[in-house]
Amino acid sequence: MTLTEWLFRGSRAKMNKREFLRAAATMAVSMVIPRSFGESQASRKTFVYKNAGGCEIKADVYGSDPSVTKPAIIWIHGGALIFGSRPVPPEWLNPDGRYVVVSIDYRLAPETKLPAIIGDLQDACRWVREQGPKLFHIDAERVAIAGESAGGYLTLMTGFSVSPPPRALVSLSGYGDITSTWYSRPSPHYSQKPPISREEAYGSLGKGGVCEPSEKDEARWKFYLYCRQQGTWPKEVAGHDPDTESSWFRPYCPVRNVSAAYPPTLLIHGTADTDVPYEESVKMNEKLSEFKVRHEFVRVPGGSHCLENDAPEVRTAAFRQTMNFVRMQIG
Fold it and tell me: What is the pTM (predicted TM-score) of this model?
């Protein structure tokens, strides 16, 4: 039983409410993590890892120490490949400072289409492996990749599109299939929100490559909302129609590319995720099991997208299990 499952089972078992809350609080305290990523990290260092499409594509590096060689974790932000940028990495990713964490940007859709986005991802991984040992003192043989939502999708892509493959993958609310009806048909959840017009959606876009943080993120969210309301995300991001060109999407769907050589993988997903369906991780879990890939599946009953709205003790339990898995793979 996972720690997360224990918490939920306890709430339904013989504990009364007060006993359950006391036990949960005790567990949360025992697994305390820093309030801010920066509290336990060395100063951030920013590098340009690639120039393309008029963009300087950057990576922020945390936790490097010239006196010691550390394993590394590449963090990939979410945002449906349409919005978002390299943030301060999440606090649960490196609470004790044992890793160098590299948070990467990549060019965004629809100005940049999916093949070029994957190209950025591959170049970022290559840059970390080749330049990381001298620039920020990592062990290039011990690199894990983690991401949330679309970053989880990109994480799963590295399992078969990056050579040599990472030593471990962590996908939080990610997905392995970009042709399923949840993306290629109007979303019941997003269709309940005020409709976005085509003019409003396209008015938020740039004219060239986009990858830097900007005040336009909120406007780009409107374009994403429009795609989900219309069921056009695959067409806008990939430039191809999954209904008529299914074979084109095969190299871009991790669930279709799992093999026995796929890296050890941990999946985390809330069962009540209203953005990326929980079933996407279920399908990925089944495929990993089919090929006997070493993996764990952290199911969070009632959990939200990326566990953003979940109780602190639930998040702490899930992420503690996650980092235990990472330590088993890269030290």
Answer: 0.87
